[in-house]
Every structure is written in C-alpha cells, then in structure tokens.
Amino acid sequence: MSAISRIATLRDVMNHNRVDAYLVPTSDPHLSEYLPEHFKSRQWLSGFNGSAGTLVVTQSYAALWTDSRYFLQAEEELSGTGIELCKMGTPGTLSIESWLVSKLNKRSTLGFDGRLFPFSNAQATIAKLKQHKLSVNSKLDLISQIWSNRPTLPNQKAFGLELRYTGATVSDKLGAIRIELQKANATSCVLTTLDDVAWTFNIRGNDIEFNPVTLAYGYVSIDDAILFIDSSKVDASLAESLLCEGVDILPYSRAEQFYSKLAKDEVVALDPMRTNYQIFSSILKRNRIFETTSIPTLLKAKKNAVELENIRQAMIKDGVALTRFLIWLEEALVREKIDEFNVGEKIREFRSKQELFVSESFGPIVGYADHGAIVHYSATPQSAYKIEQKGFLLIDSGGQYIDGTTDITRTIHLSEPTPQEASDYTLVLKGMIQLSMAKFPSGTRGTQLDALARIAMWREGINYGHGTGHGVGAFLNVHEGPQSIRPNENPITLEPGMVQSNEPAIYRTGQYGIRIENLIACIGSFENEYGKFYQFETLTLCPIDTKAIVLEMLTPEERKWINEYHSMVYEKLASKLTAKEAKWLKKKTHAL
Amino acid sequence: MSAISRIATLRDVMNHNRVDAYLVPTSDPHLSEYLPEHFKSRQWLSGFNGSAGTLVVTQSYAALWTDSRYFLQAEEELSGTGIELCKMGTPGTLSIESWLVSKLNKRSTLGFDGRLFPFSNAQATIAKLKQHKLSVNSKLDLISQIWSNRPTLPNQKAFGLELRYTGATVSDKLGAIRIELQKANATSCVLTTLDDVAWTFNIRGNDIEFNPVTLAYGYVSIDDAILFIDSSKVDASLAESLLCEGVDILPYSRAEQFYSKLAKDEVVALDPMRTNYQIFSSILKRNRIFETTSIPTLLKAKKNAVELENIRQAMIKDGVALTRFLIWLEEALVREKIDEFNVGEKIREFRSKQELFVSESFGPIVGYADHGAIVHYSATPQSAYKIEQKGFLLIDSGGQYIDGTTDITRTIHLSEPTPQEASDYTLVLKGMIQLSMAKFPSGTRGTQLDALARIAMWREGINYGHGTGHGVGAFLNVHEGPQSIRPNENPITLEPGMVQSNEPAIYRTGQYGIRIENLIACIGSFENEYGKFYQFETLTLCPIDTKAIVLEMLTPEERKWINEYHSMVYEKLASKLTAKEAKWLKKKTHAL
C-alpha cells in the first residue's frame, strides 16, 4: 500500500468522522524522542522516514513540515505522493496553523489525537484556530482505524536496576517526590514520560531503541504510588520488590482512565510541556493543577554520588573502547578501504566488548569531509563516504552501560590541516575548554554560560546553530531535561550532580564540520561571603586530537587544561589497556 | 507636623473612605526613577528620605519596606515614628501582600492610588489579595486630601532639542512609531514615561533632578499626535514648531481622561510594566490592548548616527573635565584636607565648565575605603570620610550635556595596593575589558554576555550583586531601557546604536569597593555566512588607574586593549588640555 492509497483511506475516515483536516505528528503518548514502531504513524502514512515531521491532511491537500536536517531526504521520499514539503525555518513557509487557516473554510473542523501533543503546544494551536472560527476535535485516533498491520505495542521485559547503580531505593525516590509535592502544596503527580517512570521506580527496559526505558505510566501521591505497566513485562521478583517498596502495579491501559478520575480534592503537579494534551485536559476538568517542571525530571537531573561514581566507571570503559577504536581507525586508514558506515559499526563493536554494555545511546554520527557539516548526519551504506587520508572526520557516538550513559564527539584530522582548518579546530577547542574551566555562583542558568563556549569564535565571526549542552541521563536517555546550556532562556539553574554535554562546533557547509564534546558534571567549588560557587568535572575520558591545534591561539591556562586533561585520560585508562595500546595512548596524550 | 501626626491624619481619612489599609509607594504617575517634590509623599508622610521604599498604613500598624541600601538610614529616620522597618531581601521579612494578609481581617479593603503603580505589579498584588478575600480600591488618592503645603507640580519651561542633537525630526519619529504600530496591528500608543515623551517630541526640561525631562504625556496614532503639557511650559516658538510637525498640544491635566475615552476600535500598544495601573485599566475597559515593550522606548534605545556622534563629543568634554579633576585630586591629597563630599562637589565644578553642560546625570557616588563597598553610597557633609593617602577611592559620576549623557566610574588606589587589592582590581578590569572586546551574533541578549564580565572573578569565588550594564539615554535619563546586560533574563536583544554601561565590580564589605565603568555602544562588526555580528565601541574617555594592575594576570589581548584604550584617550583629549595637563595625561596613559 502506498502513501497515496493510505492517505486516501485516511480521507475516507476523516469524512466519516466529520473532520476536514487531520494532524499526524511524530510522537507517542509519552512524548518520547525515539518512538516504538507502533507509534511511527507519520512515517507509515507518508513514507517519509526522518525522525521529525508533522503531516497535515485535508480532503484536497496534504503537507509535511520538517526541519532542514531532512529537506533532501523528504523531497526524495515524498516525491510522487502528492504531499507538499513545507520547509520549517525557511522564509515563506507558513506555520501549520496559518496553512490550515488558508486551506480550510470557516467552521471547518481539525482533528488530532490529543495523546500525541504536549498540552502547551496543543493549547496554543487550538487557541489560534479558534480565533479563525475553526473548531477542533482533539480526541480523534484515526490511525488505529486504518493501520491494519500495525506493529503491536513493544512488550520487552522490564528489569529492576540495582541499588548499587541507582544509589537510591524506590522508597527514597518516592519520599523525595513527596517532599517536593508538599513544598508545592500539591498532593500528587502523574508520570507520563518514560524516563521519569524508569527513574522513579528504578526500572529499565528495551522497548525503545537507544533509550533503556519500558512502556509504562506512573502516579505518585502523598500516600500512594502506582506503576501502570503490562503484567507480561514484569516478572515475579520485580513485582515483589516494587510491592515491598509501596508500589501498586496496574495495567498500562488503565492509566489514562485513572488519571481522569482522581479524587476531586487532589492538587496535581503537572508539566504542561511534557504531559500530553489528553491526559492534562482530563485532569484539568476535575482537579486543580500546579504547573511545574516535572518533579521526577528535576530530581533525576541531579545525579547522586553513587550514580556519579558509576558514570565515572562507565566513562573509563567508554574511553578504553574509544582508544581501541581510534587505534583501529589509524591502522585501517592505511590498510583497507573504510567508509563512514563502517566506522559507526566499528565503534559499536568496540563498545559492545565492554562490561555492562547494553546498546548505543543514539545512532552514531560519522561525518567525513562535508558530511561533517550536516549536524545530524546519519550515514547509510548507500550514502557513506569512503574515508581518505585527508581532511576532518567527525565522530559523535555514545553507549548505554548499566552503570552510565555516554555521549562523546571527537574530530580527527587525517593529514595536514590548512590554516583555516587549524584555526577553526582551535576555536572549537578553546570554547570547550573555557566552559570546562568555568566556575559560577549558585543560581546560574545555562543561558548565562553558553557564550563562554562561543566568545572565541564569535570574535572571528563564526557561530554554531545548536545549543552547547544538553542534560544526559544515568543509564537513561542521552537527551534529558530540564537544564541546558544554550542561547535560549531556560529558567532552570545548574545544580550539583547535573550531567550535561559540552559540545561547541564549527560547520563549514560543503567543506567540513568540527565538534568536540565531553560530558561534564556540575559539582561544588567554593563557599564564602559571596555565596556558593559551582564548577564542572569533566567525565569523558578520551584523547582530543592535537594535530590541528594552533598552540599560539591557546592561553597558558587553556594549554594547561588540555595537558592536565590528557594526563588524567592516560592515568585512568592505561591500566585497562594492553602495553601496546597504552603506548599509543601515551603518545596521543603527550603534553603540548 | 511629625510623621506620627501625619499618619494619624491619614488614618482619619482612611476611616472616612472606608479603607483598612493604604499603600504609599515612591513613585509618580510617570513611574519616574527620580521624583518631583510634588510626588515625594512617602517621604513627607514617613520622614524617611531614601530614594526607594513603600509605606503601608493600617489603623493599628504602619510599616515601611526598603532595600539594604537604606537599612541604616531608615532605622534612624523612622525611630520614634511607630513605623516598623521591613528589610527587603532579609530572611523572615514578609512581602507587603503577606503582611497585609496577616494584619487585616477578611473582607477588609486595601486602598491605593492606581496612578503610582505599574499595571503589572498592581495587577499581581490585587490578584494575591483577592485570593485571601481582601478587596481593593485602586482609585484612592488620600495624599492630596491631607498634604496641605504640598509642593506644586513642577512648572519649569520645556525647550526643544535641535535637529543637530536629535538627528531626527518629530515627524521622523512619529513616522517610525507609526511603522511599529502597523507592524503590531495596533492603531495608537500612549506615552506615559517622561523620557518617551521627551524623545518623541524632541523636547527636554528641568522638572526633575538629574533627568532633563518635562512633565508631560503623549499620544500617537496613525493619524494624530498629541502632547499633553501645561501651556505655561511651552513658549510660542516651541508650540509653533510642534504644530508644524503635526503635534497637537493639550493641557497636561487632560491626558488621563483622553486615554480613557479613545475610540472603541482603537488597538492600543501598551507596556504593562511601564504604564500606571489607572491609565492601563481605563484603556483596557474600552479598547483592545497589544502588550509590548513601549515602542518609543525601543526606538529611543537605538541611537542614530547624529546622536552617537554627539555623544562622542560629550565624552571628550567629560574626559577633559575628569582629567582636570584627577589632576586636582592628586594635588589636593598632598596639599589639603578633602573628604568624599568635597570630591563630589569638585567633579561637578569641573564638568560645569564644559560647553553645553546642563547638570549632573545622578548624584555622585564617592566611596572611600569601606564606603566604596556600599553600592549606592551618597556622601553627605556629615557622613563623608576624610580621604587619606592610602587605599581605594571609588568615584561614580556623570553629566548631562545637551549633546549627551555620561556615566563613568573610576577606582583609584592612593598608595601601594596589597596583593588582595591588586588582584581584585585586576579581576574587575579583566571583566570590563572582556565585555568591551566581545563580538556577538545579531539576536544576542545582554543575559548571554553578562558572564563575560564575571567569569574571571567567578573563578576566584567572587561576584557582584548588581547588573553589569544598563541602557543610557542621549541627553536623557542615565538609566533607560529596554536592554540590559545582567544575569536576569531580559528578552530584548542588543542592537546597533544601543548605548549601555559596562561596570563590573568587587565589593569587600568593611574594606573597599572597586568598580570600573565605561559606556559602550553596540555597533556593526561582520556580516558573513554565519549571519550579522555586532561589537562594542567604548565611548568613555578617561584614564584607568594602572597602579593596582597585576600585569601577569592580564592576557596579551587584555593588555593590548588597555594600551590601545589609553592611547585613544590621550589622542582624543590632549588637544583640549593645557600642555601641563596633557603631560600629566601622557604619563597616566603610558603603555603597560
């Protein structure tokens, strides 16, 4: 069945359900970044395989909005389907709301499945459409009616994560959530994102690629705690241990109804940006809501001492795997023909040999030459460039280990850098080091620090179009909130225990991309008459290519930082390596 | 009549007007920073002379909220009045709203004069009180009923500012405002802050100390422009020229009523934070409001080329005055007994000899030794320290010239700095230089740059409790919006033409304060594939004391910056000085 016939079927049921337009986003009821196959309805319907995009269908038109990462791919994959490509961020591209207003008659109705949109986004869309006399049906799941061979919901086993990895029991976490509920004068919170559920109940799973989570909902009140999960996913001992910690287990399918029938006097702490429209609205009908960043998200972000120590161990293993990979790469480049795709495979192979390895934490980004300038490039065997002994190779990859999640980028120069290549590389490195060396008072937001990673390149008229840092989970999602280090305002302050990336970059379209990324933990520094100060501990352990560094562009402090970093890398990894590997590492971490 | 008897009288009229509590803020209907005597009712009523504070009176209690700058002064001045001092920002101090809730019975009524509060603040206060079943009468001016010898409204002549200073005619400015109105789908805006009115109509005045503004309101619609001002303040030629530019003149007292009776189909662009509650509410009753940062405020912030060139000229004169002052200071310290108060007087004396000088732009802050650590210290003949030949002297002062407004801080060491003094001084200087050297892409907010001025001291565990930069007017208020460079989020982006201060500092309580402040203009820098970049031009011209600089703490770039700055200072000032003065300046601006 082609996109054309699927959309025709959709139009039939739209007619039947009296809606004139229907929205199909890339989302699931948990608002996950990576989707189970069951929820890839936008992909199934349109034939477009990118990881982001929203399809809008009316009786006469169909259009798909996606961002610049996918313009080329979407053009190819949508060709012949009759679906118009709307390039987000391009001048002249209408917003979905404006497009709908232009295509629909007054008093038309837009339908969508409210479970697939964050409350705040859906609310804004509805408000805009109502201004233009369009009505909305937000409870319409048309996909289930037309997707005949739809993959089932994922049903992999969940498993408990031991205390030696979590550093806190489920009871500890429920206690911490309850303290926050009381501070907010709330009586309960509902947990709808899969990583909030995983963290709170100390469970993990294999339901989604890259994210070690399991399909479940949660509920925590002052007295009760409920995990909504299919019984087939929970074996007896896990169920038993959860019960012992005061957690009731109910079927996954019961969550929505349960949320919509909370006791009327409950005050529910809810995150309007991370709770789907249907759940949020149904609670809003009966209960007072205290709008807040999700409480488990806030608690989860501040890793405890046990989690941090585990992450440090995972970093050693990751560093060993990457050292072996880099040695392989150096040799392979001389010896055999390799391409971007092989490189990604090889990194996974080296990581997979490490203890407690579970999976990659995201699809590797291996961008050689001008592919490096495509921020989210993902090589396929078809698209992969052969890697030659010249220019930059950018490698961004990460692993999920039971004891930690890693995310690292290194950019390697494969021959003699040109002056521009060397200058760009050094500017990126300076940014990464300046953020690494920062100390800052308590109460500081990531927004305030972002420019430290950029100022050196800004002064040369260069910038990068993404944030400098995202939060990273502890054997959880490689992208997690609530903190960030980016130009945009984010009111969340950086707090001890928070782990985030530090990844400035320079992209030269058509030439190369340079990105250097370490993970850094926020930790205590001073306490004096000026208050409390924090600093960063660099967690990632892997040599940084020194070939393209222009030494004269580094300050003495920056030079000291890289030398100290390299001697730490050698010290922590050498004993895990063979003598030959250690010798290679010694050379790569030699003081500048 | 004492504070006690005045408050007793207030309580009588409160009774009469059936309000149980009354708020007296430090404000006027234009929400000015500096008040005409007519509006100093909080001061008249309480006997407390500080520039900030809110008095709250009930039948049984009276309390005054002020900030840490005034704790000592307020304690002294309120002693014996029965007015409780509520120290803002001190643990345990209730907010005014919470205090009211604790003191009043349910269904009590709070009264205030809605013309003296920003709409957004009053709205928030009313909402909180209503939650606690308290009602509010926001149209109650009780002060007029009890203040018998109240000073009249200021009635100094207004004067037109010539095109060679404004760089744009009133018609140009009305045109620019109308373009912004149309962009916002609004039809008019009301101008309630005195500097918005002064800028729009190219008028200035002498109604308020330090701010060269005149008491007036304004109104601009697509077709009309009205200046509400007392006819006695406008001479025939000014009135004539305004009429020629399409401005109608109506009495000051007519503005409020006019605003409350706009045509019903008008959509009014209004700033809820800079428009008083009464005016905003009365418009809200009839008209649609487009909430925005005040349009004239946004336009005014971006100085045009003529204004910038004039400011550069004013800076030369200010630099000459300050050079002469610094020479005088050096000699006076050896020769005679001088104190902080004398120093402030002397600076004004030197400035007043410069062409086009009008007044100081704020009361001088001359803080010797530990007085320097009091951020807004204002020396009186009584409080003034004698200045000896040791330690730091901090001098923050500014002038109003017809061609520009200045604001400058220098901190001078009067003997041999200790290692801590030298290190602190150098950290402040590094911060000031780093911000001066910044280049940044268009779209950058001050919040993103603030840390550049702090990172060096943060890394030593030091911070300062105020912003790094405030906007500065062109022969207008020394503090103007909408941009700022501070840790707090402010969505306004820095744009070419914006002039702001750059004033990092270190305060050692009980020891000394160090602040170094220049004014800097945002100007264009690069334009390339990464977009548009901006940088700063330093406007202030005055040597920076080099005695306490630890040269080894400066990067080569920072050292180069200060040498280039000093050679520019010498180059621009020398020809305006006597040979002897120029020789002194040569020595002070010698390359490091």
Explained architecture:
The structure is a homodimer of 592-residue chains. In chain A, helix 3 links the parallel strand 3 (62-66) and strand 4. The mean pLDDT of chain A is 96. The first copy, chain A, starts with a helix and ends with a helix. With 592 residues, the first copy, chain A, is of the alpha+beta class. Chain A is built from 20 helices and 28 strands. In chain A, helix 5 (119-131) packs across helix 12. Helices cover 35% and strands 20% of the residues of chain A. In chain A, the strands form 8 sheets. In chain A, strands 4-3-2-1-5-6 form a 6-stranded mixed β-sheet, with helices on both faces. Chain A has a 6-stranded mixed β-sheet with strand order 12-11-10-8-13-14, sandwiched between helices. Chains A and B meet through strand 21, helix 17 and strand 27 of A and strand 21, helix 17 and strand 27 of B.
Which characteristics define this entry?
six-stranded mixed beta sheet; alpha+beta; homodimer; 592 residues
- The N- to C-terminal Cα distance of chain A equals 61 Å
Bin the helical content of chain A.
25-40%
Rg calculated over all Cα atoms of chain A = 25 Å
Mean pLDDT of chain A: 96
The general outline of chain A is globular
* Poorly predicted sequence stretches spanning 5 or more consecutive residues of chain A: none
Strand neighbour order, sheet with most strands of chain A: 4-3-2-1-5-6
Q: What would you call the structural class of chain A?
A: alpha+beta
Oligomer: homodimer
Number of helices of chain A: 20
The biggest chain-chain interface is: A-B, 33 and 33 residues
Count all strands of chain A and give the number.
Answer: 28
